[in-house]
Design brief:
Helix content is 77%, strand content 2%. It has 243 residues and is mainly α. The longest helix has 34 residues. It is elongated, with a radius of gyration of 25 Å. The two termini are 27 Å apart.
Length: 243
């Protein structure tokens, strides 16, 4: 993993230059930025970049990055950013209070059960089409959970057509970190949020207010169960780390 980071640094360093980079300056940059490597190791890393087609020698002038190297650098950058985001999200979730999240979900259940009931009674064809897109676009994907969740609940709230309920829900959900936190928790406990959305959608599409309300209640209660489960897992992991 450490060597991969060193390769990333060297490739990134070379990519940022508008002229060929000499091995001496590349190695100096690697060493002076805190990477614990010898000059021999640095030379081997540079040769590895050449052998893998990521860089290309320009005579005695130095190395340039190739198109293959740029694609690899893009992949490494994406992996690095994804890992960083995952670490930040884990830290964010662990900084939240379990009881606070549960209180928010209790309030959401009281408001959104009525939103679902009204949506089943009042939704028009255009709104129904929008709601369907919000379900089918994310149903079989684990990506962008928080985006799909917000899209669905906003579309449902618009269909309900009650400004007071919408304002109340917006007040509860104004914490921008809430959806990512809940999405992260559901992923960790292997829960499928969009399966719940599909049940709500089917009830609303069937113009069945009782079923829509019940499906929403089940959805929020599933979220609450996932919060309990996540903290239970976290407690087990903590005990294992101390044993």
């Amino acid at each position: 993993m450490e060597e991969k980071g060193q390769l990333f640094f060297l490739l990134d360093f070379i990519s940022q230059s508008d002229k060929p980079v000499g091995s001496g300056s590349a190695c100096l940059a690697l060493i002076t930025t805190g990477h614990q490597v010898s000059e021999a190791t640095c030379g081997r890393l540079l040769r590895e970049l050449d052998e893998r087609g990521f860089t290309e020698k320009q005579g005695f002038k130095g190395r340039i990055i190739t198109s293959v190297g740029r694609n690899y650098l893009h992949t490494l950058t994406h992996e690095k950013n994804r890992l960083l985001f995952s670490q930040q999200l884990t830290k964010l979730v662990n900084s939240r209070n379990k009881e606070e999240l549960l209180e928010i979900l209790v309030a959401r259940k009281a408001i959104e059960r009525e939103i679902a009931r009204l949506a089943a009674l009042k939704i028009n064809d255009e709104q129904l089409a929008s709601l369907e897109i919000s379900v089918t676009s994310y149903l079989n994907s684990d990506n962008n959970v928080e985006v799909g969740d917000l899209y669905f609940h906003n579309a449902l709230t618009d269909a309900a057509g009650n400004r007071v309920l919408k304002a109340a829900l917006n007040l509860i959900r104004q914490d921008a970190q809430l959806s990512p936190v809940l999405g992260y928790i559901r992923k960790k406990v292997h829960s499928k949020i969009f399966t719940d959305h599909l049940k709500i959608f089917n009830a609303v599409a069937g113009r069945n207010p009782v079923a829509a309300e019940q499906a929403m209640v089940e959805h929020i209660e599933n979220l609450m169960a996932d919060v309990h489960k996540y903290w239970s897992f976290a407690h087990i992991d903590e005990e294992a780390n101390h044993s």
